[in-house]
Write a structure and sequence with these properties.
The chain has 276 residues and is of the alpha/beta class. The chain is globular and about 70 Å long. 41% of the residues are buried. It binds nicotinamide-adenine-dinucleotide. One of its GO terms (molecular function) is oxidoreductase activity.
C-alpha cells in the first residue's frame, strides 16, 4: 500500500511518517548533521572522544584547549574541524571563540563545557590558590561558556548546552574538595541556565552529565597518585572504568534533536556507582 493510502487509512499517523523520515535522514546524514559544535578541553580524553563521534555524525566541530599541539593534531584528523587555542578562564578568549565560530561556521548550535582538571587535597590540605584554580577552570569556565553561548545560540534559533560535571558532585569525596565544589557549582548552574533559557523562549536546552570513572589521561594520572587504601580506588575497582566513547554517546544524544524534550536534567553515567 502506498504511503498516502496508509496515512488516510489510519495505519500510519503523520507523526509516524515524520519519525520514519527523521530516522532515515539521520542514518544517511548523521545524527547531528550540519550542527556547529564547540567542545572545550577537546584535545584529550572525553572531549576528544566527543569530537570524533560528533564529527562522524555530521557536526562541524570547533575544538578548544590550552594544549595547542594535541588540539591541532586532532582537528586535522576530523573533516572540517577547527582548533582554537583557548583557556576557559579567560573571558576575552571566550568572546573570541564564539565570534570566530559564528563568523567562520555561520552560527552556534551546541556547546560542550568539558575542560577540566583534578588535584588531590582534602579541606585541610587544599590551599586557597588550588581551590581557586580548579573553580576558575571548571565553575567560572562553564559560567563564561554559558554566558557567551546563550546569545549566539539564541541568534541561531536555539541550541543545546552540555555541561560536564562528575559523580563527585553527588557524593562526599574527602580527597578532592576543590574538584567536588567546582563540579557541584556546574550541576546547580545548569538548572539556572536551563530555566533562564526556557523563560526567555530561546529554544536552548541546558543539561549536565555526571560521569563516574572513565579511562582518560586525567584518570590514569589520578590513579597513579591515589594511595591504595583510598576509598575512591575501591569504588573504581568495584564499578570499573567506562570508555570515553560511552560518555561521548550520551553527549551525542544531548546534542541531537533526539533529546529535544530534555532540559535542566542531570544524566549520571557511572555503572551504578551512585545508585545506592
Ligand atoms: N575521566 C573521568 O573519569 C571523568 C569523570 C568525571 C568527570 N570528568 C570530567 O570530564 C572532563 C574531561 O576530563 P578528561 O578525563 O577527559 O581529562 P583530560 O585531562 O584527558 O582532558 C581535559 C582537557 O581539558 C584541558 N584543559 C585543562 N585546563 C584547561 C583550561 N584552563 N582551558 C582549556 N582547556 C583546559 C586539558 O588540556 C585537556 O585537554 C573534565 O571536566 C573532568 O572533570 C572526567
Amino acid at each position: 500500500m502506498g504511503i498516502f493510502k496508509r496515512i488516510f487509512s489510519g495505519e500510519l499517523t503523520l507523526a509516524n511518517v515524520v519519525y520514519k523520515i527523521t530516522v532515515y535522514r539521520d542514518s544517511v546524514m548523521g545524527r547531528v548533521a550540519g550542527k556547529v559544535v564547540i567542545i572545550t578541553g577537546g584535545a584529550s580524553g572525553l572531549g576528544a572522544a566527543d569530537a570524533r563521534l560528533l564529527s562522524g555524525e555530521g557536526a562541524r566541530v570547533v575544538l578548544t584547549d590550552v594544549d595547542r599541539e594535541r588540539g591541532e593534531a586532532l582537528a586535522a584528523e576530523l573533516e572540517g574541524a577547527l582548533f582554537i587555542e583557548h583557556d576557559v578562564r579567560d573571558e576575552a578568549a571566550w568572546q573570541h571563540v564564539i565570534a570566530t565560530t559564528v563568523e567562520r561556521l555561520g552560527g552556534l548550535d551546541v556547546l560542550v563545557n568539558n575542560a577540566g582538571l583534578v588535584k588531590f587535597g582534602s579541606v585541610e590540605e587544599t590551599t586557597l590558590e588550588e581551590y581557586r584554580l580548579l573553580n576558575s577552570v571548571m565553575s567560572e569556565g562553564t559560567f563564561l561558556g554559558c554566558k557567551y553561548a546563550v546569545p549566539a545560540m539564541a541568534q541561531s534559533g536555539g541550541g543545546s548546552i552540555i555541561n560536564i560535571s562528575s559523580v563527585a558532585a553527588l557524593k562526599g569525596v574527602g580527597a578532592i574538595v576543590a574538584y567536588t565544589a567546582a563540579k557541584g557549582a556546574i550541576r546547580a548552574m545548569t538548572r539556572s541556565v536551563a530555566v533562564h533559557c526556557q523563560e526567555r523562549k530561546y529554544n536552548i536546552r541546558c543539561n549536565v552529565v555526571l560521569p563516574g570513572a572513565h579511562d582518560t589521561p586525567m584518570t590514569r594520572a589520578a590513579l597513579a597518585e591515589l594511595p591504595s587504601e583510598e576509598e575512591g580506588l575501591n569504588q573504581i575497582q568495584q564499578h570499573g572504568q567506562g570508555r570515553p566513547e560511552d560518555v561521548a554517546r550520551l553527549v551525542l544524544f544531548l546534542a541531537s534533536e533526539e533529546s529535544c524534550h530534555i532540559t535542566g536534567s542531570e544524566l549520571v553515567i557511572d555503572n551504578g556507582e551512585t545508585m545506592r
